[in-house]
């Protein structure tokens, strides 16, 4: 296997594909996860969640969508050492909600976002949100501002004690 590639337009590195457009995950790795059957052991579920979690920076709303699976894994491994060996010996059968979550995560993987490189000519925008259950941020890059408004909705919130 040749370890040196000069003047290439794309390069695979550590499970990622780097190109002029940005950084994406290797389609072969995504395909392997997207075609994985539902897990039958806690070990298989742990492996799936770890692999998908590794790609979470490209998966919009990953934490919320995978929450039923993560809760099940946490429940199954409660009071154990949480190792792969222990998890492999715990049989599970997913509930309909967990199967739905599993399929939704697989669909997320197939539509993973390509992370763009910052453009010094663009404007970087940071959007954040938080609640009692979690938090998230999205960073976008706007190359051209449009003066037209597609829609505008606003509302005043007043707090009374």
Q: What is the N-to-C succession of helices and strands?
A: EEEHHHHHEE
CA radius of gyration is 20 Å
Unreliable stretches covering 5 or more consecutive residues: none
Distance between the first and last residues' Cα = 68 Å
Would you tell me the structural class of the helices and strands? alpha+beta
Shape label: globular
Strand segment tally? 5
Strand fraction equals: 15-25%
- Multimeric organization: single chain
Q: How many helices does DSSP assign? A: 5
InterPro entries: DNA/RNA_pol_sf, Rev_trsase/Diguanyl_cyclase, Viral_Replic_Matur_Polypro
Explained architecture:
The chain has a domain at 10-110. It has 161 residues and is of the alpha+beta class. It has helices at 27-34, 42-54, 62-77, 84-88, 96-110; strands spanning 10-13, 16-19, 22-25, 123-130, 135-142. The strands form 2 sheets. Strands 1-2-3 form a 3-stranded antiparallel beta sheet. A two-stranded antiparallel ribbon has the order 4-5. The model has no long low-confidence stretch (mean pLDDT 86). A hairpin with a 2-residue loop joins β1 (10-13) and β2 (16-19). Helices cover 35% and strands 17% of the residues. It contains 5 helices and 5 strands, in the order βββαααααββ. InterPro entries: DNA/RNA_pol_sf (IPR043502), Rev_trsase/Diguanyl_cyclase (IPR043128), Viral_Replic_Matur_Polypro (IPR051320).
From the structure above, extract its key features.
alpha+beta; 35% helix; globular
């Amino acid at each position: 296997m040749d370890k040196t590639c000069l003047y290439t337009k794309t390069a695979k590195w550590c499970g990622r594909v780097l190109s002029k457009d940005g950084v994406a995950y290797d389609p072969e790795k995504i395909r392997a996860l997207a075609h994985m059957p539902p897990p039958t052991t806690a070990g298989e579920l742990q492996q799936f969640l770890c692999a998908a979690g590794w790609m979470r920076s490209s998966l919009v709303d990953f934490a919320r969508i995978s929450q039923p699976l993560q809760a099940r894994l946490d429940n199954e491994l409660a009071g154990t050492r949480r190792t792969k060996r222990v998890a492999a010996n715990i049989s599970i059968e997913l509930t309909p909600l967990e199967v739905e979550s599993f399929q939704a995560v697989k669909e997320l993987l197939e539509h993973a976002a390509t992370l763009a490189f910052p453009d010094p000519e663009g404007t970087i925008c940071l959007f954040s949100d938080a609640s009692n259950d979690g938090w998230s941020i999205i960073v976008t890059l706007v190359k051209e501002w449009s003066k037209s408004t597609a829609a505008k909705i606003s509302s005043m919130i007043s707090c009374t004690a």
